[in-house]
Amino acid sequence: MFKHKDALKDAQLSPLWHAPEIMPKPEPPLDGDENCELLIVGGGFTGLWAALQAKEREPEADIILIEQTFVGDGASGRNGGFLSTSITHGETNTDAQFPGETEKIKALGTQNIKELLETLERYGIDARHEACGATTIASSPEFVEEMYEEFLGAESAGEPVTWYDQNAIKEEVNSPRCFAGYKRQDGLSGVVDPARICWGLKSVLLRELGVRIFEGTRMISVKPAGKTGMRTLCSGGVIQSHKVLLATNAFTSSISRIRNSVIPVWDYQICTEPLTDEQLNKIKWGKPESRHALSNYNNMFHYFRLTRDNRITWGGGGAVRYYFSRGIDRNLMDAPARYEQLATEFFEMFPQLEGEVRFTHRWGGIIATSTRFCVVPGVMHEGRLAWAVGYTGQGVSASRFGGRIGIELLGYQPSEILKMKFVRRKALPWPPEPFRWMAVKMTQLALVRADRKGGKRGLWLKFLDALGLGFTC
Q: Which of 15, 65, 102, 399 is spaced 20 to 30 A from 468 at the CA atom?
């Protein structure tokens, strides 16, 4: 019998961030034919940031954005809200995928997050940002030495990092699963309320920048129209445009190059009720100087953070799933076994909260996973159709940069970034079913085994490393 049934039994199946009292009213769907210069398909981070950046670069541009359901309904409104300077899923992955561009990519990532935060401030978007850095913990003794070497490398490179030995980390986050930790504090990374970013951007686009937004509007097909335009058939009509940006991320695309670049992987989260001061003191987490944004040093890592009202969101670990044949059905969010697993692992991390803390929310979202573990941009039809997809779970800030790549590929003030391997190098496509499902399943099992062995990688993972498939991170 599931041990923590009482803690989970009243949790509503809905993202914490989708609180009805703050959700904006959806815009009406497309009802008839329209014309514009740029059509953006997808009302998540990539599409919203792309629209804003295009408008800021060319204020006279006539832009329409369509969204199949409502703005912020996809991964952009269902993630953990971790904001990072990385745009390529970490330096190890950058070195493996784009040799020779590490420093340039690092600088672009820092510039990107600075501009993101400046934009939120300029337009008065309250994303509830906390610049608490990123803290990694060793959840087993076997990882301490390897993690310490990583810390020393960061320190020697001049990064602002702090090391916590076992006694020190337990003063920051009191858990029997904390054996060491280190914190990267750059004054930028931290946590946000992701849905508030989506809805804040939506408001700015509509009311200040003149972008037309149609929600509840599904794209059916997109094709060239003559030599200079594009014709997009939608559920409510046809949109004729000069250019199109596809920002659909994990959702199945009609473009084979996009469809083969990413697969949809479900990730699940749970969230506690607000913790009392007494409960926070038990775990020694939540003091103003130690509101860490946390993850553990595993391949199948958990990520967990505090919200402004002192809830703990808890996700990741072994609860992630790829379902055969690109399963994206919304019914897959209702996955009791995944939530039970997360609850069990939560109380293993914080046993002192067992029996006194309940979960109020449980939800799932779809990660677009690429074989290079970061965004996959592309362009076709002589620069009239572009895309940026596949952030692999690290897209809260990287998606703004993905939106920038997308509009630059379409000719909106293109820069030197379009010459980089990061943009030009194609991702290795995923194999067809059933080989795709088998490969993902084998990889997940191999990563779990590696975690149990203190990170020691087996033959399958070494083979993937040799192919440069992103699992080096």
A: 399
